[in-house]
Amino acid sequence: MKLEIGRIYIKDIQLGQETSVKEGVLTVDKEGLIAKLKEDERIKDVSLDVAKPGEKVRIIPVKDVIEPRVKIEGGNNGFPGVTSKQAQCGEGKTNVLYGAAVVTVGDVVGFQEGVIDMWGEGAKWTPFSKTYNLTVDISVVDGLTPHAHEETVRIAGLKAAEFVGLAGKDVTPDEVITYEMGSIFEETAKYPNLPKVLYAEMMITQGLLHDTYIYGVNAQTILPALLHPNEELDNAVISGNCVAACDKITTYQHQNNSVIEDLYAQHGKEINFLGCIMVPEHTTLAGKLRVSDYVLKLAKMLGADAVVISEEGYGNPDSDLLMICKKCEKAGIITQLITDECAGRDGMSQPLADTAQEAVAVVSGGNVSHVVTLPPADKIIGNAAAIAVLAGGWDGALLEDGTLMCELNAVIGSTSEIGFHNVTCRLY
Amino acid sequence: MKSIIITNNPAVREKYRNVLFIDGSVEDTLIKVRDMVYQGYELVSHPLAASIRMMYSPYRSVILGRQEAKVDFLYAEIIEDSIIKYKRHTSHRKKDVTNSDDYQMIDLILLEAALSEQQITW
Amino acid sequence: MSDKYKVLYYVNQFFGQVGGEDKAGMAPEYRGEKIGPALGFEGLLNKNGEVVGTIICGDNYFNENKEKALDFILGTIKDIAPDVFVAGPAFNAGRYGVACGEISKAVAEKLNIPVVTGMYMENPGLDICKEVAYVVRTSDSAGGMRKALPIMAQIADKLAKGIEVGPPEEEGYIPRGMRKTIFVEKRGSQRAVEMLLARLKGQPFTTEMPMPVFDIVEPAPAIKDLSKATIALCTSGGIVPEGNPDHIQSASAQKWGKYDIAGRDALNAPDFYTTHGGYDPVYANEIPDRVAPLDILREFEKEGYIGKVYDFFYTTTGTGTSVSKAKEFGTQIGAELKAAGVDGVILTST
Q1: Cα(A320)–Cα(A334) distance, integer angstroms
Q2: Could you tell me how many CB contacts below 8 A there are between chain A and chain C?
Q3: Residues C164 and C250 in one domain
Q4: Is C260 in the same domain as C148?
Q5: So where are chain A's domains?
Q6: CA A423 → CA A113, A344, A364, A367, distances in Å?
Q7: Are C32 and C153 in a shared domain?
Q8: Element (DSSP H or E) covering residue B73
Q9: Is the CB of residue C95 less than 8 Å from the CB of residue C60?
Q10: Domain limits of chain B?
Q11: Which of A91, A201, A375, C67 is close enough to A74 for a disulfide, judged by CB 3.0 to 4.6 Å?
C-alpha cells in the first residue's frame, strides 16, 4: 500500500466568499459552508469563526478536531463509510491543509469540557493552539435524541473538513510524504533481521459520547481489527468521543497518529512495522479479557516481537492496558506502553492504582490532575456556560477577574496517550 | 435474572427490575459492590467509567453476576483499586448537581452498552 | 543588619560536640553560634547566607520525649525565623535520623520554612520527612560529611533565594515522591519508540512511570493438623500493656515488645491499650482484642480447633516504620518463634 500525503502549509485563515488557498492563506466560503451543513435538516444553526495562534481566544467545549483534506488520487474523497461511499483508504494521493484544523464545538450534554486556549499559559498545554482553527458551532433542532444530536455534530464536523479541504485540490503541496509498505511477507523478506513491531491502539468504545468509528462502523461492535497504518492516516478512523478531553484521540490525531508516524520513520531501519491493531475498550470485564486474548493471538499469528500499546481515556481502560501488557509479556512479546497518570493535584499520589510488574517500559503523557491557571480570554468561542462547569470543580477555582483554575484533564490533547504532545511527569 | 445491577441512578431503577438501588452516593454504590464481591459475586462490568469527567458523575451503575462460593481476587483487586481512584479524583471536588439529568442519562446508556455484551454467560 | 539570609542548624549531642552516648539524654538547647557541621556549612554558602545558631538535642532525649523536644525546638525556630532550616546530616544513625526526620517534617509543615537534611537511603528517618524536606543522599557514615555538606548548602542556597530546585538526580537529593508535570523536547510517541528500540537492542532504558516494587513472599506450607499446632499472636497495631513499659514508639518504631499472656483469656482494657499513632485509637482502646484477637484464639484453643496459644504475644507499631526496620523486627521475632517451636502466627495490622 502506498499513500502520498501532500502538505500544503497554511499560515493564515479567514472567512470570505470563496474557499481557496492562496500563498498559504486559507479562505473559507462562509455562506457556502453554512448552506452545505444546513442540508442536514437536523441542524438549526451554524456559527463559524476563526481562532489563530496567539489570539486571546478560548474555545469551549470542543467536541472534535479534524484536519481538512482532499483526495487527489485513489479511494474516495471525504471519510469513506461516513461522508462518502465505502472505498479503500490508504492508497493514492491526499492533500492536507497542514496547519489548519476544523474544531467543532457545541455540547450534547451539559457537562462537556474540553478547552483550547490560543494564547499564553493555556496554549502551552494543547497542541491545537498551534493550528489555524476554523470553529464550527452547531445548534440542532428541538426534539432530537442525544444519539441523533451527537451524530449530527459529528457528521457536520467531518463535512466541514471535507468542504474546506477541497481548497487544496489544485494546489501544489509544499512537501510530500510517502508512506509505503508491502505485505507482511514482502517486508519480512526485505528485512529478515529486523524485529517485528505491532501497534495496538486502544479506543474508547462504550456508548454515547464514548465511541470510535472505523469506516463508519461503531468499533464497540468489533473484535480487535488489523489495519494497514496507511488507512488510519487516510481518514479511516474517526472519533465520536466527547469525554476525556486531555487524553482522547481526536479525529485529527487519528489522521496524524504520532505513534504510526514515528514507527513508520523506523520501518526498514531499526524495525519491521507490521501494522495496527484497533482495540476496542469495553465496559465489561469479559470484554476486556476477550480483547486482550485477541490482541495477543493476533500478535502471535503475525509473529510480532514487540507491541506498542497506547491507551485512550482513564479509569476502566487502565485494566485493558495492563491485561494486554501482562499477556504479551508472559508470551515473550515485549511491550511498550503509552498512558497518562493521576498523581493527584500535588503530584504526591501513586500514579496508577492498578500496577503490573510486567509494565517495565512506560511513557507518561503527564498528570491529568495537574492544576493549570488560565487567565481570562478576550473572546470565547462556544459556550461560556461550559466554563462554569470547568470552574465548578472546587471553591476558589474561579477568581473574580475571570482567571480560572482547572485540572489538565479539561484541556484538549494535553496528556495525549498516543504521545502527540510533549508533556510528561518526572519523579522529583 | 442472573445478574443484578447495583446503582444509585433513579433512571436505571425505573427501567430495570433486577436492581439493587442504593439511596446514596457513588461511593456508597462502589462500597456495596465491594462488599458483594467479597461475598463471592462476580463483577461483570468495570466499576469505573472511561474518563475523569465521568468520575464526577453523581450516578454510577455496576453489574454483578452470579454468587460463587469463592471470592475472585481479580474482581476484588479491581473494585478496591477503583474505590481508591474514585476517591482520589473526587474527594476535593464539589458535586456537579446542575447536570444531574445528563449524568443519569449517560450512565444509563453506558450500562446498556455493557448489558448488550455476552449476557448469556453471566 | 546584613542582607544575608538566615540559616538555623540542628545537630545531635555528638555532632554538637557535647559528648557521646553518655550525653544522649540531654534536653534540647539553643546556642547562638555555629557548632560542628554548621561551621563548615556557612563557608559553603558563598557569603550569601549566615548560620545564626545551632540547636543541639540528645538522640535518646528526642526519641523518648518527642513532644516536649519538638515544642522547644519549634518555639526556638519560630522566634528566630530563619529563611532555611538545616538538620544533620544523620547518615545511617537511626535515632539521629528519626530526630532529623521528625523535626524537618514539623518545621516544613507547621512553620512553612524550607528544610534541608541529609541521610543514608536506609535511614528510618527518611520516610518521615522526604515528602516535605529535601533529603540529600549521603553515605552511611560520617566519613561522607565532606561530600554531603556542599550539596546540602547548594540546595539551602536555592531555597533561601526562592530559586526552583531541579530534579533529584541533578541536585543530589532523594526523590520526594512527587510526580512533577513537565515539558520535554520530544513528543511522547517519539520517546516511546526510542525506549522500545533500546529495549529491543538490550540497551538500558528508563521507564517514565516506575511501577512500585513489591516483595514477593513465598507462602509457608499449610499447617497439616491445626489441632496440634501452637499459634502465636503478633501485631503491628501497637497494642501494649498498660504504661507501655518498653516505650515502643507511637510511630516509626525502633523496637518491638514481647509480653506474657499465659494466664489471660483476652487482652482487656485497661490492662492493654494501643500506643499506635496512626489510627483513631478509640475502638482499639475499648476492646484491644479488636486489633490483636486473643479472645478468639482462646476460644479456638478451648474447642480444640488449635492446639495451643503461644505464651507470649509480640507487638510493635507499623505506622511510619521503615521497611528495613520492619524486616529486622520480622527476622528477630521469627527466629524466636521458630526456636520456641511455634507452628503458625496470626499477624494483624491496622
Answers
A1: 16
A2: 157
A3: no
A4: no
A5: 2-410
A6: 20, 16, 8, 9
A7: yes
A8: helix B73-90
A9: yes
A10: 4-121
A11: A91
In a domain, residue C136? The reply is yes
Is C207's CB within 8 Å of A361's CB?
A: yes
Closest CA to C274 of C283, C264, C262: C283
Q: Which domain holds residue C41?
A: 5-171
Q: Is A81 left (phi over 0), alpha (psi -120 to 50) or beta?
A: left
Q: Rounded to 5 degrees, what are φ and ψ at C278?
A: -110, 5
User: Given C125, C146, C171, which residue is the final one in a domain?
Assistant: C171
Single-letter code of the amino acid located at C67 = E
Query: Per-residue confidence of chain A (428 residues) as pLDDT tens digits?
Result: 999 999 999 999 999 999 999 999 999 999 999 999 999 999 999 999 999 999 999 999 999 999 999 999 999 999 999 999 999 999 999 999 999 999 999 888 888 889 999 999 999 999 999 999 999 999 999 999 999 999 999 999 999 999 999 999 999 999 999 999 999 999 999 999 999 999 999 999 999 999 999 999 999 999 999 999 999 999 999 999 998 999 999 999 999 999 999 999 999 999 999 999 999 999 999 999 999 999 999 999 999 999 999 999 999 999 999 999 999 999 999 999 999 998 888 888 766 556 788 999 999 999 999 999 999 999 999 987 788 777 767 777 888 888 888 999 999 999 999 999 999 999 99
Q: Which of C167, C176, C189 sits opposite A419 (nearest CB)?
A: C189
Contact in structure between A383 and A302 (CB atoms under 8 Å): no
- A174: which DSSP letter? S
In b/e form, how buried is each residue of A258-270, taking b as 16+ CB within 10 angstroms? bbbbbbbebbeeb
Whether the CB of B63 is below 8 Å from some CB of chain A: the reply is yes
- C312 and C167, same structural domain? no
Report chain A residues whose CB lies below 8 A from the CB of B51: 204, 210, 243-244, 248, 313-315, 409
A242 is catalytic: yes
- Domain for residue C34, yes or no? yes
Residues C129 and C241 in one domain: no
* Domain contains C128: yes
Residue A115 DSSP code: B
Residue C202 lies in a domain: no
Dihedral sign computed on CA atoms, order C121, C122, C125, C126: positive
Q: Do C208 and A343 touch (CB under 8 A)?
A: no
B120: cell is: 448469556
Q: Which residue of B has its CA nearest to A210?
A: B50
Q: With contacts defined as CB-CB under 8 Å, which chain A residues touch C192?
A: 259, 262, 308, 336-338, 363, 419
Nearest-CB residue to B52 (from A146, A209, A368): A368
Among C171, C206, C238, give the residue marking a domain's end: C171
Grid cell digits, residue A280? 476496542
Residue C21 sits in the same domain as residue C109: yes
Per the CB < 8 A criterion, the answer to whether A61 and A382 are in contact is yes
**Cα distance between residue C27 and residue C59, in whole Å:** 9
Q: Find out whether A165 and A70 touch, Cβ atoms under 8 Å.
A: yes
CA distance A295 to A128: 32
Partner-chain residue, chosen from A336, A349, A421, that has the shortest CB–CB distance to C192: A336
Nearest CA-CA partner of A60 in A416, A404, A399, A423: A404
Q: Do C211 and A359 touch (CB under 8 A)?
A: yes
Residues of chain B contacting residue A315, judged by C-beta atoms under 8 Å apart: 46, 48-52, 54-55, 82, 85
- Rg of the Cα atoms in chain C: 24
Q: What is the pTM of this model?
A: 0.87
- Using CA atoms of C143, C146, C147, C153 in order, give the dihedral in degrees to the nearest 10: 140
Q: What is the pLDDT of residues B72-107, one digit of tens each?
A: 999 999 999 999 889 988 888 887 888 899 999 999
Counting the structural domains of chain C, the total is: 2
Nearest of C18, C54, C10 to residue C33 by alpha carbon: C54
Q: Which residues 293-312 of A are in CB contact (within 8 Å) with B?
A: 312
